[in-house]
Write a structure and sequence with these properties.
The protein is mainly alpha-helical. It contains seven helices and four strands; from the N terminus they run αααααββααββ. The radius of gyration is 23 Å and the shape is globular.
């Protein structure tokens, strides 16, 4: 019985070590949270109040609690370096804040085009014309200028976030994270491209 218990502890330690090793790479959850904050700010959405966590259930067994405590302490002892290597995702630098402010100020001019379906979010986290007929002829040059400026800032933003974290190779994953976030935060009725490039109305 004792041998089985030790074997179980070792198995859990191996799994936990594997999890920590995976986590030292691109921190997807932190990136999604940061993208959500940035997109909310640009689109002018207020942050929803956090709900209290009601799932604060205590362990049903003292033995189970003790076992988990010992396992956690053992992991901390053997792999502190791996935990220290967990990146602290940075989405705030002078360059990022400048780009974010520029996009936020432009959003009021872009919003009517989103609302009319004239433009939408692309699958690569940019914007593009969805329905040129929805743009009055006299406004087409202005709309194209807004689209070009927005896309320039978006590309610079994703690159700046990757650079702020010291991982330029993360740019593609950051862009993919923002692509999902723009769609999630889009208002009802706005258009976006699906994974195959087809236009879909939210």
């Amino acid at each position: 019985m004792k041998v089985l218990r030790i074997g179980g502890v070792l198995a859990i330690l191996v799994l936990l070590t594997a999890c920590v090793t995976i986590n030292i790479y691109f921190p997807a959850a932190q990136a999604e949270e940061a993208a959500g904050r940035i997109v909310d700010d640009i689109l002018g959405k207020e942050k929803a109040p956090q709900q209290p966590n009601k799932s604060d259930n205590k362990s049903s067994s003292l033995q189970h609690s003790l076992f988990r405590s010992i396992a956690a302490e053992t992991v901390d002892f053997f792999i502190p370096a791996a935990e220290a290597a967990q990146p602290d995702f940075n989405a705030s630098s002078p360059a990022i804040r400048k780009l974010q402010a520029s996009m936020k100020s432009r959003n009021s001019a872009l919003a009517p085009y989103y609302n009319s379906g004239a433009i939408g979010f692309t699958r690569d986290a940019m914007i593009a014309v969805h329905d040129a007929a929805a743009i009055p002829l006299k406004s087409r040059n202005k709309a194209q200028g807004l689209i070009s400026s927005e896309n320039r800032d978006r590309s610079a933003l994703y690159r700046a976030i990757a650079d702020a974290n010291g991982h330029p190779e993360w740019e593609a994953e950051i862009r993919a994270t923002f692509a999902r976030t723009w769609v999630e935060k889009a208002a009802r009725g706005w258009w976006y491209q699906n994974a195959k490039g087809g236009w879909v109305q939210k």
